[in-house]
Design brief:
Elements (H helix, E strand, L loop, with lengths): L8 E6 L4 H14 L2 E4 L11 H17 L4 E7 L3 H8 L6 E3 L3 H11 L3 E5 L5 H13 L6 H16 L5
Parallel strand pairs: 1-2, 1-3, 3-5, 4-5
Helix pairs in contact: 2-3, 4-5
Length: 164
């Protein structure tokens, strides 16, 4: 992996409920120095199918990471649950639903989560922004027990083998 810049590249996607929060985050994070790619949607559609947006953002995170670029993802929705599920279907993604500061930072520290899901209906704009900033700024601990556990998850994901 190449040297990590101060700020990771960020891939963001949402459903129609999270569009206002997503637009805010794209501007806010870019102003802070993040390289942000918006995977949509581009216009409001109450009947949108968010999985494709979230899967595309997750695929971009994995592609960047495989290319040696420090990258993380954000998926947004009303609750964040469906968006997290969609992102987690991409091999190599560890998407975590964050609902407070602790879940946002522990997702990075313990699980080396590379995508965060946040529910736009669950938080004010300020709260959601703080959760996402906490996630983006928190490093993985590199603790042996967490590396071992993530390895077991990766083994199952790639081979279907459950390691005791």
């Amino acid at each position: 992996m190449t040297e990590s810049p101060a700020f990771p590249r960020v891939h963001i996607a949402t459903d129609h409920i999270g569009m206002e929060l997503s637009a805010h985050l794209v501007r806010h994070l870019a102003e802070k120095g993040y390289d942000v790619t918006d995977h949509g949607p581009k216009e409001y559609d109450a009947l949108d199918d968010y999985p494709s947006f979230c899967i595309n953002a997750a695929l971009a995170v994995v592609a960047d990471q495989e290319a040696g670029t420090h990258a993380l993802g954000i998926v947004l929705g009303g609750s964040g649950n469906g968006e997290q599920v969609a992102a987690n279907k991409v091999r190599g993604v560890r998407a975590a639903l964050a609902w407070n500061h602790s879940t946002a930072t522990l997702a990075r520290q313990h699980n080396d989560a590379n995508v965060v899901a946040v529910g736009g209906r669950q938080h004010s704009m300020e709260e959601a922004t703080a959760l996402i900033e906490a996630f983006l700024q928190e490093p993985f601990s590199n603790d042996e027990r967490h590396i071992r556990r993530i390895g077991k998850i990766t083994t199952y994901e790639t081979t279907g083998e459950i390691v005791a």
